[in-house]
Design a protein that fits this description.
about 160 residues; alpha+beta; two-stranded antiparallel sheet; 4 helices; 7 strands
Length: about 160
């Protein structure tokens, strides 16, 4: 188990076809029973249609044994929360880079009528940048967010 929230649990899994680690987000049965699967299905649809360098893409989705799920790339390394616990204060260059990337991803999501409802350091990888430079082990394809999704904006307040 990589993490869990009110609606779903995220597990580390092996993509046997492509020989890679993936993160699988599974809707909690009690959530589906109480409120229905619609919100999770909408999250899957939204995820599938967002293509941005700092938002994890959807690799697959489906249902197995009455469990709804979707699959994302697994991002190795520490979360921003883990890094903050260890360092307490980030170097200014790292802080500016992270802030810029988060704002860019949120701006892109907002342009597509998506509001992130759970912005927190646990949902952001920090391992890409160390000491103000890109960590070469991850390369340019590395995407920084474990999850950047929610309900579409309705314009209502």
């Amino acid at each position: 188990e990589l993490g869990s929230g009110g609606m779903a649990t995220v597990y580390l899994a092996e993509d046997v076809k492509h020989h890679r680690k993936v993160a699988v987000k599974v809707l909690r049965p009690e959530f589906a029973a109480a409120l229905g699967p619609e919100r999770f299905l909408r999250e899957i649809e939204i995820t599938a249609n967002l293509n941005h360098p700092h938002i994890l893409p959807l690799l697959d989705s489906g249902e197995a044994d009455s469990f709804l799920y979707y699959v994302m790339p697994y991002v190795e390394g520490e979360s921003l929360r883990d890094r903050l616990v260890g360092e307490k204060q980030l170097p200014i260059n790292d802080s500016l880079k992270i802030t810029s990337e988060v704002a860019d991803a949120l701006g892109f999501a907002h342009q597509h009528n998506v509001i992130h409802r759970d912005i927190k350091p646990e949902n952001r990888s920090s391992s890409r940048y160390r000491g103000g430079r890109r960590d070469e082990t991850h390369g340019d394809r590395h995407r920084d967010w474990y999850s950047c999704l929610s309900q579409p904006r309705t314009g209502k307040r």
